[in-house]
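Pair request: fold both.
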Amino acid sequence: MKLRIILAAAVLAAGSIVARGASYYVNDGSTANDAWCSAAGNDANSGTSANAPKATVQDVLADYDLEAGDTIHMDTGRYVLTNDITVGSLDGGVSNLPVTIRGSAGGTVIDGGSTNGGYGVVLNGVTGVELRDLTITNAYEGVELKGDFYTGSSRNNSLSNLTIRSVRGSG
Protein backbone atom coordinates (compact mmCIF):
# COMPACT_ATOMS: atom_id res chain seq x y z
CA MET A 1 0.00 0.00 0.00
CA LYS A 2 2.79 2.43 0.89
CA LEU A 3 4.49 1.76 -2.46
CA ARG A 4 1.25 2.54 -4.36
CA ILE A 5 0.90 5.87 -2.57
CA ILE A 6 4.50 6.80 -3.35
CA LEU A 7 4.08 5.79 -7.00
CA ALA A 8 0.82 7.71 -7.26
CA ALA A 9 2.49 10.82 -5.81
CA ALA A 10 5.39 10.45 -8.25
CA VAL A 11 3.01 10.16 -11.21
CA LEU A 12 1.05 13.22 -10.08
CA ALA A 13 4.24 15.22 -9.57
CA ALA A 14 5.54 14.24 -13.01
CA GLY A 15 2.20 15.20 -14.56
CA SER A 16 2.30 18.65 -13.00
CA ILE A 17 5.79 19.24 -14.37
CA VAL A 18 4.68 18.30 -17.88
CA ALA A 19 1.52 20.39 -17.56
CA ARG A 20 3.51 23.55 -17.01
CA GLY A 21 5.28 23.33 -20.38
CA ALA A 22 8.22 25.29 -21.68
CA SER A 23 8.30 29.05 -22.13
CA TYR A 24 9.78 30.75 -25.18
CA TYR A 25 10.26 34.49 -25.61
CA VAL A 26 10.02 36.73 -28.66
CA ASN A 27 10.69 40.45 -28.64
CA ASP A 28 10.93 43.18 -31.24
CA GLY A 29 13.91 45.56 -31.36
CA SER A 30 12.86 47.48 -28.23
CA THR A 31 12.21 46.83 -24.56
CA ALA A 32 9.86 49.83 -24.18
CA ASN A 33 6.74 48.84 -22.20
CA ASP A 34 7.71 45.15 -22.29
CA ALA A 35 5.99 42.72 -19.94
CA TRP A 36 8.50 39.86 -20.04
CA CYS A 37 11.70 40.56 -21.95
CA SER A 38 14.70 42.53 -20.72
CA ALA A 39 16.54 42.51 -24.08
CA ALA A 40 15.74 43.17 -27.70
CA GLY A 41 14.92 40.14 -29.83
CA ASN A 42 17.53 38.46 -32.01
CA ASP A 43 17.03 35.15 -33.83
CA ALA A 44 20.60 34.18 -32.85
CA ASN A 45 19.37 34.06 -29.22
CA SER A 46 18.01 30.86 -27.69
CA GLY A 47 14.55 32.32 -27.03
CA THR A 48 14.28 30.21 -23.86
CA SER A 49 14.74 33.08 -21.41
CA ALA A 50 13.44 36.62 -21.08
CA ASN A 51 16.97 38.02 -21.33
CA ALA A 52 17.70 36.19 -24.62
CA PRO A 53 14.49 36.42 -26.70
CA LYS A 54 14.22 35.57 -30.37
CA ALA A 55 13.02 38.20 -32.84
CA THR A 56 10.44 36.02 -34.59
CA VAL A 57 7.92 33.34 -33.76
CA GLN A 58 8.94 31.62 -36.98
CA ASP A 59 12.44 31.05 -35.55
CA VAL A 60 11.04 29.54 -32.32
CA LEU A 61 8.93 27.16 -34.43
CA ALA A 62 11.95 26.26 -36.59
CA ASP A 63 14.28 25.63 -33.64
CA TYR A 64 12.01 23.82 -31.17
CA ASP A 65 9.44 21.03 -31.14
CA LEU A 66 6.57 22.59 -29.22
CA GLU A 67 4.43 20.34 -27.05
CA ALA A 68 1.25 20.54 -24.98
CA GLY A 69 1.50 23.30 -22.38
CA ASP A 70 4.29 25.27 -24.10
CA THR A 71 3.90 29.05 -24.41
CA ILE A 72 5.49 31.54 -26.78
CA HIS A 73 5.42 34.96 -25.08
CA MET A 74 5.39 37.71 -27.73
CA ASP A 75 6.30 40.89 -25.92
CA THR A 76 4.96 44.39 -26.53
CA GLY A 77 5.62 45.69 -30.02
CA ARG A 78 4.88 45.47 -33.73
CA TYR A 79 6.12 42.40 -35.57
CA VAL A 80 6.21 42.98 -39.33
CA LEU A 81 6.16 39.59 -41.06
CA THR A 82 8.19 38.59 -44.09
CA ASN A 83 6.40 35.20 -44.10
CA ASP A 84 3.27 33.89 -42.42
CA ILE A 85 3.60 32.46 -38.93
CA THR A 86 2.78 28.82 -39.73
CA VAL A 87 2.15 26.37 -36.91
CA GLY A 88 2.25 22.83 -38.27
CA SER A 89 0.91 19.52 -37.02
CA LEU A 90 4.07 18.69 -35.03
CA ASP A 91 3.80 21.80 -32.83
CA GLY A 92 0.36 21.38 -31.28
CA GLY A 93 -1.04 20.53 -27.91
CA VAL A 94 -4.41 19.21 -26.79
CA SER A 95 -7.65 21.08 -26.22
CA ASN A 96 -7.22 21.35 -22.44
CA LEU A 97 -3.43 21.94 -22.62
CA PRO A 98 -2.71 23.90 -25.79
CA VAL A 99 0.44 25.39 -27.22
CA THR A 100 -0.16 29.10 -26.66
CA ILE A 101 1.12 32.09 -28.63
CA ARG A 102 0.44 34.93 -26.23
CA GLY A 103 0.77 38.67 -26.65
CA SER A 104 1.48 41.08 -23.82
CA ALA A 105 -0.94 43.39 -22.05
CA GLY A 106 1.08 46.30 -23.49
CA GLY A 107 -0.03 45.40 -27.02
CA THR A 108 1.36 42.87 -29.47
CA VAL A 109 0.70 43.51 -33.15
CA ILE A 110 1.40 40.97 -35.88
CA ASP A 111 1.64 43.03 -39.08
CA GLY A 112 1.35 40.94 -42.23
CA GLY A 113 2.10 43.94 -44.45
CA SER A 114 5.02 42.38 -46.25
CA THR A 115 3.79 38.79 -46.61
CA ASN A 116 2.61 39.46 -50.18
CA GLY A 117 -1.00 38.48 -49.65
CA GLY A 118 -0.29 36.13 -46.77
CA TYR A 119 -2.51 35.12 -43.93
CA GLY A 120 -0.71 36.41 -40.84
CA VAL A 121 -1.06 33.19 -38.82
CA VAL A 122 -1.65 29.79 -40.42
CA LEU A 123 -2.72 26.82 -38.29
CA ASN A 124 -1.84 24.01 -40.68
CA GLY A 125 -3.30 20.66 -39.69
CA VAL A 126 -2.55 21.35 -36.05
CA THR A 127 -4.54 20.47 -32.95
CA GLY A 128 -4.52 22.38 -29.67
CA VAL A 129 -3.16 25.86 -30.40
CA GLU A 130 -4.35 28.99 -28.62
CA LEU A 131 -3.77 32.47 -30.05
CA ARG A 132 -4.25 34.92 -27.20
CA ASP A 133 -4.03 38.68 -26.60
CA LEU A 134 -2.88 39.55 -30.13
CA THR A 135 -3.76 42.01 -32.87
CA ILE A 136 -3.31 40.84 -36.45
CA THR A 137 -3.39 43.48 -39.17
CA ASN A 138 -2.46 44.17 -42.81
CA ALA A 139 -2.73 40.57 -43.98
CA TYR A 140 -4.94 38.99 -46.62
CA GLU A 141 -6.71 37.12 -43.82
CA GLY A 142 -5.81 37.27 -40.14
CA VAL A 143 -5.85 33.56 -39.33
CA GLU A 144 -6.11 30.64 -41.72
CA LEU A 145 -7.16 27.20 -40.48
CA LYS A 146 -6.27 24.50 -42.94
CA GLY A 147 -5.62 20.81 -43.11
CA ASP A 148 -2.53 19.01 -44.28
CA PHE A 149 -1.91 15.69 -46.01
CA TYR A 150 -1.38 13.73 -42.77
CA THR A 151 -3.95 15.02 -40.31
CA GLY A 152 -6.61 16.38 -42.62
CA SER A 153 -7.69 19.41 -40.59
CA SER A 154 -6.95 21.82 -37.77
CA ARG A 155 -8.97 21.00 -34.64
CA ASN A 156 -9.49 22.13 -31.05
CA ASN A 157 -7.78 25.48 -31.53
CA SER A 158 -8.87 28.64 -29.75
CA LEU A 159 -8.72 32.36 -30.35
CA SER A 160 -8.90 34.45 -27.20
CA ASN A 161 -8.87 38.26 -27.05
CA LEU A 162 -7.78 38.39 -30.68
CA THR A 163 -8.31 41.51 -32.78
CA ILE A 164 -8.14 41.18 -36.56
CA ARG A 165 -8.33 44.38 -38.59
CA SER A 166 -7.37 45.88 -41.95
CA VAL A 167 -7.42 42.52 -43.72
CA ARG A 168 -8.09 42.22 -47.45
CA GLY A 169 -9.86 38.84 -47.34
CA SER A 170 -12.52 37.40 -45.09
CA GLY A 171 -10.61 37.64 -41.79
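--- second member of the pair ---
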Amino acid sequence: MQASSKTITARVQVLLDAFSTVVLKEPDARLVLVGDGPLRAEIASSAPPNVRLARDLTDAQLRWVYAHATCLLAPSLEDFGLTPLEAAAAGVPTVALRAGGYLDTVLEGRTGVFVDEVTPRTIAAGIAAAEQTRWDPAAIRAHATSFGEDRFAQRVRALAAELGTNVPEPR
Protein backbone atom coordinates (compact mmCIF):
# COMPACT_ATOMS: atom_id res chain seq x y z
CA MET A 1 0.00 0.00 0.00
CA GLN A 2 1.08 3.53 -0.55
CA ALA A 3 -0.17 6.87 0.67
CA SER A 4 0.96 9.81 -1.35
CA SER A 5 0.71 13.45 -0.49
CA LYS A 6 2.83 16.51 -0.97
CA THR A 7 2.45 17.29 2.73
CA ILE A 8 2.26 14.77 5.56
CA THR A 9 -0.70 15.90 7.64
CA ALA A 10 -2.74 14.79 10.63
CA ARG A 11 -4.69 12.47 8.31
CA VAL A 12 -1.57 10.32 8.12
CA GLN A 13 -2.16 9.33 11.74
CA VAL A 14 -5.57 8.05 10.68
CA LEU A 15 -3.85 5.98 7.98
CA LEU A 16 -1.41 4.59 10.53
CA ASP A 17 -4.27 3.67 12.86
CA ALA A 18 -6.14 1.99 9.98
CA PHE A 19 -2.97 0.22 8.90
CA SER A 20 -2.51 -1.25 12.38
CA THR A 21 -5.85 -3.00 11.83
CA VAL A 22 -4.72 -4.29 8.44
CA VAL A 23 -1.48 -5.66 9.91
CA LEU A 24 -3.46 -7.75 12.40
CA LYS A 25 -4.89 -9.68 9.43
CA GLU A 26 -1.84 -9.38 7.14
CA PRO A 27 1.36 -9.24 9.20
CA ASP A 28 3.53 -8.83 6.08
CA ALA A 29 1.66 -5.72 4.87
CA ARG A 30 3.73 -2.60 4.30
CA LEU A 31 2.81 1.07 4.04
CA VAL A 32 4.86 3.69 2.21
CA LEU A 33 4.10 7.32 3.02
CA VAL A 34 5.29 9.70 0.33
CA GLY A 35 5.63 13.36 1.17
CA ASP A 36 6.95 15.81 3.70
CA GLY A 37 5.60 18.24 6.23
CA PRO A 38 5.67 19.49 9.79
CA LEU A 39 4.53 16.14 11.23
CA ARG A 40 7.14 14.07 9.41
CA ALA A 41 9.61 13.77 12.31
CA GLU A 42 6.85 12.88 14.77
CA ILE A 43 5.43 10.23 12.45
CA ALA A 44 8.89 8.84 11.62
CA SER A 45 9.70 8.42 15.31
CA SER A 46 6.46 6.57 16.08
CA ALA A 47 5.94 4.57 12.88
CA PRO A 48 6.22 0.80 13.13
CA PRO A 49 8.96 -1.01 11.15
CA ASN A 50 6.61 -1.94 8.29
CA VAL A 51 5.93 1.75 7.55
CA ARG A 52 8.40 3.68 5.39
CA LEU A 53 8.52 7.40 4.80
CA ALA A 54 9.85 8.72 1.50
CA ARG A 55 10.35 12.27 0.28
CA ASP A 56 12.05 14.17 -2.49
CA LEU A 57 11.53 11.29 -4.91
CA THR A 58 12.43 11.71 -8.55
CA ASP A 59 9.69 11.01 -11.08
CA ALA A 60 11.31 7.66 -11.82
CA GLN A 61 11.42 6.73 -8.13
CA LEU A 62 7.78 7.72 -7.67
CA ARG A 63 6.78 5.62 -10.70
CA TRP A 64 8.64 2.68 -9.13
CA VAL A 65 6.76 3.12 -5.85
CA TYR A 66 3.43 3.20 -7.69
CA ALA A 67 4.37 0.18 -9.80
CA HIS A 68 5.05 -1.85 -6.65
CA ALA A 69 2.02 -0.67 -4.65
CA THR A 70 -1.07 -2.75 -3.98
CA CYS A 71 -3.24 0.36 -3.78
CA LEU A 72 -3.00 4.10 -3.24
CA LEU A 73 -4.53 5.55 -0.08
CA ALA A 74 -5.82 9.05 -0.76
CA PRO A 75 -7.55 10.42 2.35
CA SER A 76 -6.90 14.14 1.79
CA LEU A 77 -9.06 16.50 -0.19
CA GLU A 78 -7.61 17.29 -3.62
CA ASP A 79 -9.16 19.78 -6.02
CA PHE A 80 -8.18 17.79 -9.09
CA GLY A 81 -7.47 14.29 -7.80
CA LEU A 82 -4.11 13.87 -9.50
CA THR A 83 -2.59 11.20 -7.26
CA PRO A 84 -5.16 8.53 -8.24
CA LEU A 85 -4.28 9.20 -11.89
CA GLU A 86 -0.58 8.78 -11.12
CA ALA A 87 -1.36 5.43 -9.48
CA ALA A 88 -3.74 4.48 -12.29
CA ALA A 89 -0.97 5.04 -14.83
CA ALA A 90 0.75 2.10 -13.10
CA GLY A 91 -2.47 0.06 -13.04
CA VAL A 92 -2.88 0.56 -9.28
CA PRO A 93 -6.33 1.13 -7.72
CA THR A 94 -7.09 3.85 -5.18
CA VAL A 95 -8.90 4.03 -1.84
CA ALA A 96 -10.05 7.65 -1.81
CA LEU A 97 -12.19 10.07 0.13
CA ARG A 98 -15.50 10.52 -1.70
CA ALA A 99 -14.97 14.24 -2.32
CA GLY A 100 -13.26 16.84 -4.46
CA GLY A 101 -11.35 15.89 -7.57
CA TYR A 102 -11.42 12.21 -6.67
CA LEU A 103 -15.04 12.16 -7.82
CA ASP A 104 -13.75 12.90 -11.33
CA THR A 105 -10.65 10.72 -11.35
CA VAL A 106 -11.71 7.56 -9.47
CA LEU A 107 -14.37 5.26 -10.90
CA GLU A 108 -15.85 3.27 -8.04
CA GLY A 109 -15.40 -0.45 -8.60
CA ARG A 110 -13.31 0.07 -11.76
CA THR A 111 -10.31 2.12 -10.64
CA GLY A 112 -10.82 2.28 -6.90
CA VAL A 113 -13.13 2.43 -3.92
CA PHE A 114 -14.44 5.39 -1.98
CA VAL A 115 -14.73 6.04 1.73
CA ASP A 116 -17.25 8.58 2.99
CA GLU A 117 -15.17 9.81 5.90
CA VAL A 118 -11.59 9.56 7.04
CA THR A 119 -11.51 7.40 10.14
CA PRO A 120 -9.39 4.35 10.93
CA ARG A 121 -12.49 2.16 10.57
CA THR A 122 -13.54 3.49 7.15
CA ILE A 123 -10.00 3.49 5.76
CA ALA A 124 -9.44 -0.09 6.97
CA ALA A 125 -12.77 -1.09 5.37
CA GLY A 126 -11.72 0.62 2.12
CA ILE A 127 -8.42 -1.24 2.13
CA ALA A 128 -10.24 -4.53 2.74
CA ALA A 129 -12.65 -3.80 -0.11
CA ALA A 130 -9.74 -2.96 -2.44
CA GLU A 131 -7.92 -6.16 -1.50
CA GLN A 132 -11.03 -8.28 -2.15
CA THR A 133 -11.66 -6.79 -5.59
CA ARG A 134 -10.19 -8.32 -8.74
CA TRP A 135 -8.81 -5.27 -10.48
CA ASP A 136 -8.04 -5.04 -14.17
CA PRO A 137 -4.72 -3.14 -14.32
CA ALA A 138 -5.10 -2.53 -18.07
CA ALA A 139 -8.52 -0.93 -17.55
CA ILE A 140 -7.11 1.19 -14.73
CA ARG A 141 -4.25 2.34 -16.98
CA ALA A 142 -6.70 3.08 -19.80
CA HIS A 143 -8.70 5.29 -17.47
CA ALA A 144 -5.56 7.27 -16.64
CA THR A 145 -4.84 7.86 -20.33
CA SER A 146 -8.28 9.43 -20.72
CA PHE A 147 -6.87 12.35 -18.71
CA GLY A 148 -3.74 12.66 -20.86
CA GLU A 149 -2.63 15.68 -22.84
CA ASP A 150 -3.78 14.30 -26.22
CA ARG A 151 -7.23 13.48 -24.89
CA PHE A 152 -7.50 16.93 -23.30
CA ALA A 153 -6.61 18.62 -26.61
CA GLN A 154 -9.21 16.49 -28.44
CA ARG A 155 -11.89 17.54 -25.95
CA VAL A 156 -10.98 21.23 -26.24
CA ARG A 157 -11.15 21.03 -30.05
CA ALA A 158 -14.51 19.22 -29.89
CA LEU A 159 -15.96 21.82 -27.52
CA ALA A 160 -14.61 24.63 -29.69
CA ALA A 161 -16.18 23.01 -32.76
CA GLU A 162 -19.53 22.88 -30.95
CA LEU A 163 -19.19 26.60 -30.37
CA GLY A 164 -18.30 27.18 -34.02
CA THR A 165 -14.68 28.03 -33.32
CA ASN A 166 -11.80 26.35 -35.09
CA VAL A 167 -8.85 25.29 -32.91
CA PRO A 168 -5.78 24.44 -34.99
CA GLU A 169 -3.94 21.16 -34.54
CA PRO A 170 -0.68 21.51 -32.61
CA ARG A 171 2.48 21.72 -34.71
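Observation on the second member. The chain is about 45% helix and 15% strand.
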